[in-house]
Amino acid sequence: MESLDYLKKNIGKFTTATLENLFIEEQNREYEGVTFSIGKQTFRSRKAKITPKKAGYFVVFWEKDVENNNQPYEAATAPDKLVITVFDQEKIGQFIFPKEILIKKRILSQGEIKGKMAMRVYPNWVEELNKTAAATQKWQREFFVDLTDRFDSKRLDALYFAKKN
């Protein structure tokens, strides 16, 4: 799993804590779905996929309900952060979304909010987007770190371990 190998290799570059409680999410194996913890924080990780006909990168995150149907993750049981790693030839980046923004953007289900089972992410190197995609990229920018040319330990530490408001 390329994204998990990347996490394991680089986590020590910005924290002394170790990656623990690793669990592979079989239902999302195609997107390298895993959960883990670092210290007291919990994480869900995915590898985004390149889609040839549409800008940005696609990623899924869903679970099976009691009737074996796919459903969005529940806010109440979701980890603290969602990490989405993007690999595109020489480009590498990560989105580290806190649970609160995933609730605010209606990605996690909560109460009357249905949630989503997939989304697109738009790293800073993706250009010429339509209006909707550009608006999505704008809010996602705050949670993105471009690791292509420089490993930004301070930014990663801030995104992975930012305190809740």
Folded structure, characterized:
- This protein is an alpha+beta fold and 165 residues long.
- It has one domain (2-161): MepB-like (Trna Endonuclease, Chain: A, domain 1), CATH 3.40.1350.140.
- 21% of the residues lie in helices and 32% in strands.
- The chain contains 4 helices and 11 strands; from the N terminus they run αβββββββββαβαβα.
- It has helices spanning 2-10, 99-104, 131-140, 153-161; strands at residues 19-24, 34-38, 41-47, 49-50, 57-60, 62-64, 70-72, 81-88, 91-98, 118-121, 144-146.
- The chain has a 6-stranded mixed sheet. Strands 4-5-10 form a 3-stranded antiparallel sheet.
- The protein is globular, with a radius of gyration of 15 Å.
- 28% of the residues are buried.
- The model has no long low-confidence stretch (mean pLDDT 91).
Topology:
Blueprint: H1 2-10, E1 19-24, E2 34-38, E3 41-47, E4 49-50, E5 57-60, E6 62-64, E7 70-72, E8 81-88, E9 91-98, H2 99-104, E10 118-121, H3 131-140, E11 144-146, H4 153-161
Parallel strand pairs: 3-8
Antiparallel strand pairs: 1-2, 2-3, 4-5, 5-10, 6-7, 8-9, 9-11
Keywords:
globular; 21% helix; 6-stranded mixed beta sheet; alpha+beta; Trna Endonuclease, Chain: A, domain 1; 165 residues
What's the tally of helices? Answer: 4
Q: Mind telling me which CATH architecture this is?
A: 3-Layer(aba) Sandwich
Tell me, rounded to a whole number, the average pLDDT: 91
CATH class: Alpha Beta
At the fourth level of CATH, the homologous superfamily is: MepB-like
Uncertain spans: none
Order of helices and strands: HEEEEEEEEEHEHEH
Cα distance spanning the termini: 33 Å
Beta content comes to: 25-35%
Backbone structural class:
alpha+beta
